[in-house]
């Protein structure tokens, strides 16, 4: 049992997914094919320079038996412990991840995030299961978008219109830029910058009532950031509108398969007080 009950207001825009949206999304399944949208997590998972990488400690392995460990009844086993940042690989930013003017989403003060307790409000333990209608907006198509390329509302609307997609209340919108597919093999290159949605696109999606926004980039928004701003899309979506961000989503295969909405499922870990959770989102076609 979680140490804290999930509060709808601390889920932010995820609360836009209700039973009606879940039932509608379930009805989109046609073939039963499952497409994995998550990166593998292990010591080789790319990590930015400011964040520790994933570390594995084997607490029991084959070497122990080679060295004479007991094997009662012939039984042998292996176990390991992982040390990893909550923002590892494909992950979802909880609403406690970023804020501005000393205040988190919902009016909670920054003092509610402490080293001893983690996030007392809006942490990953408040996210809950995500099951709803997913859509891919393939902005890149066959193009190669450069780092810093800003995807505005008008371009997103054009992409959605060309694909025959109308953004609906409670949608999980996934933005394909092609960046992870092209740059994900090198941490240095992948984390050096990225294309992404600008504030106009973020506002358009939030106004449409989306539940969450994901992308095949590590920050969803363009980097380097325009002008002298610092993560303006994070500030707006997480703090002002309560829209969680799903980062480093694997989208190339999915974009080649779908021509409309699909059932999206992602189960954040109930990490009490954490600012994010690794997850493996899937599309069920």
From TrEMBL:
GO terms for molecular function: arylformamidase activity. One of its GO terms (biological process) is L-tryptophan catabolic process to kynurenine. It holds the Pfam family Cyclase. PANTHER family: CYCLASE, PTHR34861. This is Unannotated protein. It comes from freshwater metagenome.
């Amino acid at each position: 049992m979680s140490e804290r009950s999930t509060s709808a207001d601390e889920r932010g825009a995820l609360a836009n997914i209700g039973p009606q949206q879940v039932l509608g999304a379930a009805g989109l399944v046609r073939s039963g094919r499952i497409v994995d949208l998550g990166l593998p997590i292990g010591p080789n998972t790319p990590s930015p320079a400011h964040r520790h990488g994933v570390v594995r400690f084997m607490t029991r392995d084959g070497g122990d038996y080679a060295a004479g460990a007991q094997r009662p009844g012939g039984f042998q086993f292996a176990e390991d412990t992982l040390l990893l940042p909550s923002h590892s690989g494909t992950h979802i930013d909880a609403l406690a991840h970023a804020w501005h003017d000393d205040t988190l989403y919902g009016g909670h003060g920054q003092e509610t995030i402490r080293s001893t307790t983690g996030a007392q409000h809006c942490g990953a333990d408040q996210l809950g299961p995500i099951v709803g209608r997913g859509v891919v907006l393939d902005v890149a198509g066959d193009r190669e978008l450069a780092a810093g390329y800003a995807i505005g509302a008008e371009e997103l609307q054009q992409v959605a219109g060309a694909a025959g997609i109308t953004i609906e209340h409670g949608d999980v919108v996934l933005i394909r830029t092609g960046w992870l597919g092209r740059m994900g093999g090198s941490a240095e290159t992948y984390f050096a910058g990225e294309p992404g949605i600008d504030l106009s696109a973020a506002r358009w999606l939030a106004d449409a009532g989306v539940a969450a926004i994901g992308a095949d980039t590590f920050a969803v928004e363009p980097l380097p950031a325009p002008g002298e701003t610092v993560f303006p899309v994070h500030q707006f979506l997480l703090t002002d509108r309560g829209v969680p961000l799903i980062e480093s989503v694997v989208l190339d295969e999915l974009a080649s398969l779908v021509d409309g909405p699909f059932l999206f499922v992602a189960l954040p870990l109930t990490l009490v007080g954490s600012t994010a959770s690794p997850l493996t989102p899937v599309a069920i076609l």
